[in-house]
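User: Run a structure prediction on this.
Assistant: Running it now.
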Amino acid sequence: MPEAGSAPVGVFDSGVGGLSVLAEIERLLPAESLLYVADAGHIPYGEKSPEFIRERCILVAEFFRAQGAKALVVACNTATVAAVADLRQRYPAWPIVGMEPAVKPAAAATRSGVVGVLATTGTLQSAKFAALLDRFASDVRVVTQPCPGLVELIETGDLHSDTLRELLSGYVAPLLAAGCDTIILGCTHYPFLKPMLATLLPPEVVLIDTGAAVARQLQRLLTQHDLLASGPAGQVQFWTSACPKSLRNILPKLWKNSESVRSFEM
């Protein structure tokens, strides 16, 4: 019987955005074996109802539990907002890590006192996000910008087109006009836009995302539960609820190799 530490960690997102978090986990915890589900057949979550998102999250969680996953990472801001509290209640003994827009570090980093947030509509409209603002951003001005369309372009592997540049420029412009010197990337897809954002933003503007913080929290929870893996590098396995060929084609752009991708049918 394998040791508990050798069991895999389940990571999921509505699509490929969670690969930005997966990369941070692999960098910090190279011995961990990782299972990744892209629920791309139901993307984007940001425009779906909280009830629908919760249903999908439970299905994915049950799949990971059937695979023997020792922990769960909800690598999606919208899914975290909609479902992580329910998941923790449903599986109280299972280590679960969610995403949170980095309001606290952004509020600490800003010099102008104005922080921008790029996020999905679902994240920005959530009570959880409002509570974060109340708790950590009482002394700064926060300018929020919903970004419809960005996730869908990134899902196609588009990180460089004129269409993407025009869309992204339109979302960034109000933040710059408001004097933002710190911008939160409030969706796990958005770290893949850092190279293009660097060409659209003044060099003094700081971009903040939470992938590394999520990896550190996972490390803390695994240590606390005596579940950390040791030994050689772990393996990564992929599933998608959309066409596996689509994920295989995009993996070399956003991950590394076009590794084995299986169909997740639920």
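The chain has a mean pLDDT of 92.
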